[in-house]
Amino acid sequence: MIALDIISLVMFENTFNATTFITGCASIVGFWFIFVKCGIEGWWALIPFAREYKLAICAGREPEGRVLVFLNVLRLADNIGLLFLDPTTNLGLLYGVVSVLIMIPALIYDIRVKLGLIEVFNAKKIWIIPWSVVECVPALLWGLLKRYQPQWKVQDLKNIAADFFSGSKAKVLEQGLTVNLEERTATEFFKKKYLLRDIHMYIQPGHMVLLLGGSGAGKTTYLNAVNGYEKANAEIVMNGLNMYKNYKSMKYDIGFVPQLDLMRGSDSVIRTLMDAASLRLPKDFTKAERRARVDEVMKIFGLTPVMNNLVDKLSGGQRKRLSIAMEFISNPTLFILDEPDSGLDGVMARELFEQLRIIADQGKIIIVITHTPDRVIDLFDDVIVLAKDANRTGRLAFFGSIEEARTFFGKDRMEEIVKAVNRQEEGGEGRADEFILKYAEGLQNA
Q1: Which domains are delineated in the chain?
Q2: Regions in the chain scoring below 70 on pLDDT
Q3: pLDDT at 159
Q4: For the chain, which end, N or C, has fewer CB atoms within 10 Å of the first or last residue's CB respectively?
Q5: Residue 270 vs residues 299, 306, 312, 324, 352: alpha-carbon distances, Å
Q6: What is the pLDDT of residue 430?
């Protein structure tokens, strides 16, 4: 942040502020040696904006660094505009307000980067105060004193994900779901970003699977890749058919229930399900056949007594069952549910998951995301654990039975497993890479 003030002084100010110039130069010297310690060429400290980005990489906060650079560029552009405007005019006042609005998020992202650097150097969080107030002092101390050393180098972060590749694909079988996902990428800040990598598994028919992972671990991205909504560099095979190659004919063989339903409150239960039947059942179904399927589904989910009730008049549990019933109309082989128990108390959630267990026992594959898994964990067969590696890429930290997961992580509760793989700044233990490597090595040795 001080570097931005130096640029303004050198290029645009009429008076020379020696104090700001000296402290800015001191920060640059400190950053030079910090970069060297972290495995980055020190001369990057001389380049405005790139310096902040490289510091974010050292801190393991590259996404925050990109935002910070963008905000600092906006700040500089705004400062340039202020030089040519009378601050007493409306336009000058507007530029002043914009400057403050940009400065606030820039300070927030700068603090995030510095907190990441504090974590990398294994220092106490109290260091955020000098880093925020007198940046040059901690920069010089951490850069010049041997006692301050990073726990890892940037090169280690770059290679850590590649070293963890399992190198083994799941065998494609005629029945069940096979997922061989090499990578799912996106382009951000003019560079390729890996959202998911190296996820391979085979899920047997009749299994109910829990999908675990902290915020940003890639759970939704993974599900969208599996159901074909957002294709990845992957081979997704269900019952011997490639999902991506046969998506049009298979899309109704997958049921997806989002966390928030899109039902019209003014429609009745029967009207809602009949509309779903018209959309999801084959066109050659007669009206009588559609009604028969709707009656069957209402019976399965206990909705027959309220079939004529308006959606808005349903209880929370009834509404959840209706949203699931809509997707179950087409009798899908793969059923995916995103927090179906959200907003339900323990009793209603239990009843809902028991119903899902009955469906799974009919030979269906059910994958569920829930933030309260331990209250119904006895109903699940397997668990998928996704975690962010050091590059913040979603990786497979575990796939197997519930008991195997407890042994693998040394945790009794599923919520404790999520805490173990979450980053420390997210309230976790920061052990994601440890378990990603452990699982990958286990596959290699199997």
Answers
A1: 2-151 (no CATH), 160-445 (3.40.50.300)
A2: 1-17, 78-79, 81-88, 91-92, 95-96, 155-167, 188-191, 445-446
A3: 47
A4: C
A5: 12, 9, 13, 14, 20
A6: 84
